[in-house]
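Question (not urgent): is this output format expected?
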Amino acid sequence: NLMLPVFKSPILDHPSISHGFFSRHHTNSDLCHYFDTDHIVSVHQVHGNDVLIINSPDQIHEYPNADAIVTNINHIVITIRTADCGPLLLFHDDPIVIGCAHVGWRGADA
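Got this back:
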C-alpha cells in the first residue's frame, strides 16, 4: 500500500541507486511498483553471518538462509527485514556494488 510512508535518507542519495525503508505493512507488490521492477531478492534470515552474492540474473529467484545480500546486477531490488535488529545498507560506486544486511547482535558477533 503506497499510501503508507516510505522513508529515505538524504545520506544515501546517489544517481546510480534507489533506496527506501518500508514498513511491515508494505507488500512485495508495493516494492515492485515503487522501484519499477519485477525482480525482488530476499533471503530467509537466520541471525548468522552468511551472505548471498548475486552475480547473475539467474540467481534472483533463490531464497537461501542468509542475513545479507550483495550484488552488482542492475534493476533488481534486494531486501532485508528488521524488527529489533538493524538494517545495514552498503554501496560502492566504482564498480557499482550494493548490499543490505540484517544486523543483530548474533550476526555482528559471528
